[in-house]
Design a protein that fits this description.
Layout: H1 10-18, H2 22-31, E1 42-47, E2 50-56, E3 61-66, H3 73-88, E4 92-97, H4 98-103, H5 105-122
Parallel strand pairs: 3-4
Antiparallel strand pairs: 1-2, 2-3
Length: 132
């Protein structure tokens, strides 16, 4: 599935990559270079009019790392709207709090791997997961 790319968000995505949070950096160290089950993740990826923290097109997965600002009602509403949009595209969204990523990265990685396995087992394309 091809996702709509808003070129106007390219510069903002670059800024977000260059100013990543501690939790985002920690998770990225585990996701980059296909370290999680051979899946290629993109960091700060524009999808539609939103920017996903991490996106893996092969398993239709977005990972969001939520800091303290995600507790504010205004941000919660924006997150819900973004998640609804992504889910309507058939993309699963996994959310983790900063603290989860910093304090228990192994559990975070297990949840990501669980999604990848479930996607692989349920998708007719699943057998292509580890092919280039």
């Amino acid at each position: 599935m091809k996702v709509y790319y808003n070129a106007k968000l390219k510069e903002r995505a670059r800024q977000l990559r260059n100013h990543s949070t501690r939790a985002e950096i920690r998770l990225w160290l585990h996701l980059k270079c296909k370290k999680v089950m051979g899946c290629d993740f993109h960091r700060q990826k524009p999808i539609g009019n939103y920017i996903a923290d991490f996106y893996c097109p092969k398993v239709q997965l977005v990972i969001e790392v939520d800091g303290y600002t995600h507790n504010f009602e205004e941000v919660i509403k924006k997150d819900r709207k973004k998640q609804d949009y992504l889910e309507n595209l058939g993309i699963t969204v996994l959310r983790f709090r900063d603290e989860e990523v910093i304090e228990d990265i192994d559990s975070v990685l297990r949840r990501i791997e669980k999604h990848i396995l479930e996607y692989t087992n349920s998708s007719p394309r699943g057998e292509d997961l580890h092919t280039p």
